[in-house]
Specification:
The complex is a heterodimer of chains A (about 270) and B (about 270). Chain A is mainly α. Chain A contains twelve helices and five strands. In chain A, strands 2-3-4 form a three-stranded antiparallel beta sheet. In chain A, helix 6 crosses helix 7 and helix 6 packs antiparallel against helix 11. Chain B is mostly helical. The chains are: A mainly alpha (about 270), B mainly alpha (about 270).
Amino acid sequence: MTETISTKIWHEDPEPDNPFAARTCYCSGFDVYGDLLGRISWMQYLWLLIRLEPPSTQQVRMLEALAVGIANPGPREPSVHAAMSAGAGGSTRASALMAALAVGAGNLGGARDVFAAMQSWAACGTDLEAWRERLRNPPVEERTDVWPDFEHSPGFDPNGATCPTPVRQLLNCLTALDEGPVLGWLGTSREALESEAEAPLAFSGVAAAALHALGFTPEQGEMLYLLLRLPGAAAHALEQEMNWAKFPFFGTGLTLTDDPGPTPPSTVP
Amino acid sequence: MTTAKGPDLLAQYEDNWITAMGATFPGQGRTVLRGKDVLNDLGHRRWMEYLVYAAIGRESPELARLIEGLWTLGSSYPDPRLWNNRVAALAGSARSTVTLALAAGTAVSEATLYGLRTSKGAIDFLHRADRKLKAGQSLADVVQGELRKYRAIYGFGRPIVRGDERITPVLQLAKALGYENGHYVQLALKIHDYLKSSRYKYQINMSAIAAALMADHGFSPDDFHRLACLSFVGGMLPCYIDAHDKPEGGFFPLRTSRIDYRGAPERRWGEA
């Protein structure tokens, strides 16, 4: 029996002269090149791919606002820094984005932060007491995993002081677009949550709330956060290409505490 | 430096990385790793000895030989149908670079059904099982409890096939190096015997035997994870090369009829 790829997302009709080339491509039943192309936005298509149903106008506006809000974390942020490190040395462009994905995947402000925060939303909803309890006593997995353990409350910035202005601006913008109670509740409960987490709300926390409000699962949210933060990494990596002489090396920033000093050459065995 | 929090902590680390791990001194022609000179000392050793020293700070040619053997016997199968190897082969077929192929394939190796999550999970299970046994639980209770809670035990059972042909040669290698009678190896084999004769019919796989050998060296799950993270590249490289050397796009091409669509019927945008 011929092995096949089972999918609810995509199917194709072949060109008459080539069974390996598609004549028509359907995404969740819609003819991509005959119907969708030129009629829907990239954000509508992204939604359709993940959710398999068209979004409402309001849902697209909210997802698009989030996408703009997180598209470029800026050149100081670790995932973009990683992409620029690829660019500065003249590495492949794919490696720049792979670097951004690898670093931007992590627990600290990365996609794993969003995943964990979305799990909190799924568990606590808009119940402040449930949030307080979860922040005080986060779930502990008996089994170890490839991901490091969390060292902070997901969605909050352990290295922050107060909630930065752009984070609050993104939260306010999304609150205005949210047809449900989630973002508004986060706005009014933010300080109480920050007090319990002993850290200010982070971009990852706002993104997690918005993605939860839009009905995405934590898995879908993790993937979207990885994807939607790549534009800034791409732009900054391109800008730094072969710009190594003007890119920080932290030349005097490293202190080695166990330097043996010059040693005599050993005999090569 | 650890009492500060927030921006104060970041300010302490600004342009200030204090480390005992390593550094290079370009003007002096020197490089240091964990207190040892790379060019005049570590650089003359085998690469695996260097890697083990880099990962855990332990100098041991025997341990390096064991890990080398585990990589060669256990995680370097050059079959492009295996999911991580397939990524490397697809990269070769699509004419991407060898490093992108191996980097992506290595990242993919942190999988749940095989690879690094099972390896780390296996050493974690052996540690937890050992603690429970020492606390007085029976082997049957420990194993059944794990299966009830997680429906599977990392390191035991295998997708696609039942047995694991790597166990015998790995145990032979362990015996040659004097590691076959360690506490965790014996525990892993006891669990294997129990499961094999139970209704579950699971058998020990490569992850558990490698995990047991590493646990017998006193390694934590994180140690094992770090020591194993590059262990699949020996199998990926030939898969990349083979696909690269064949016609572009020639690696298992799929015709449109190979898509088994189970989704929404044909419809038009804007029409409910």
